[in-house]
Amino acid sequence: MTAPPPPRSAGNATPPLPPPPPARRPTGKWYFVAMICSFGLLTPVPFLHAAARLNRRALRIRAAVYAVLVVLLFTLNSFVPKDAQGHVTGKVGNALEGLWVLALIGLVTSACLQIAPVRREVFGLAAPPVPPPTGPGAADPAVAARLAARARREEARALAARDAVVAHELRIGRPDLTGPYDDGGLVDLNSAPAEVISAHCSLSPETAARVVRAREELGQFRTVDEVAVYAELAEGETARVKEYAVFLPK
Questions:
Q1: pLDDT attached to residue 7
Q2: What is the pLDDT of residue 70?
């Protein structure tokens, strides 16, 4: 009778292969690199790329505006007094050159601030998490209830982004309609009437009416930035709209 083979020593066992590293996702940081390293010359390019990816007219308009501003700035720079070697001459020339540099810095800074939230949408990046409150008020039931409602709004927004049909059926963003789903108080700015927008986003009736008029002119909103620009919202109004807005396609 043949003896069974001896058991393999645990020390000789082949260790499992480590899992492969997660694939790196593009983050769109080249948007900022292109604008800054080109000294503003390529400022329209990120907006054109985002417009092509998101199919947004507002982004195409911004790209055109920045293209005009870039051409205008560099054309004006050619009128700054310079000598044969291209060096700025005279007090007037130095003053104009300084103003030109400040204008260029302002243009690039403005473009970077405007493209930052758009970049998150294009590349599917999550917005920075809101840190929970600390201190004596953190355990207050009213604070806890509002944080829970905010979490439900984020969950409902994610559901609406995945499946707009289900979101419509659940009446997400329509607090004026009876629905089976608690969305935390979201307001669909593409369908809610002015009085609902006013009440739930804490806007004046006149401001809510401007939002509805802008919606009718555009057809539909896609971002809070569009609402802020076309409805001429103040900074505080924009913050309140951002807290409660959702955008369901019509």
A1: 56
A2: 95
Residues 6+ apart with CB under 8 A from 244: 153, 185, 186, 187, 200, 201
pLDDT at 187: 96
Burial degree of 203 (CB within 10 A; 0-12, 13-18, 19+): buried
pLDDT at residue 22 in the model: 54
Residue 32, both tokens? 């900022």
Residue 15's pLDDT band, with cuts at 50, 70 and 90, is: low
CA 42 to chain centre: 20
Count of CB atoms situated within 10 Å of the CB of 139: 9
Angstrom distances, CA of residue 180 to CA of 73, 98, 166, 175, 183: 55, 61, 12, 11, 10
Cα distances (Å, whole numbers) of residue 159 to 74, 89, 145, 152, 169: 46, 61, 21, 10, 12
C-alpha–C-alpha distance, residues 244 and 173, integer Å: 9
DSSP per-residue letters across 161-201: HH-HHHHHHTTTT-TTS--SS--SS-EETTT--HHHHHHHT
pLDDT-derived band at 4, boundaries 50, 70, 90: low
State the sign of the Cα–Cα–Cα–Cα dihedral 52, 54, 57, 61: negative
* CB-CB neighbours of 247 under 10 Å: 21
Where do we find the tokens 């419509």?
168
At 245 the three-state DSSP class reads strand
Q: In Å, how far from its chain's centre is CA 154?
A: 15
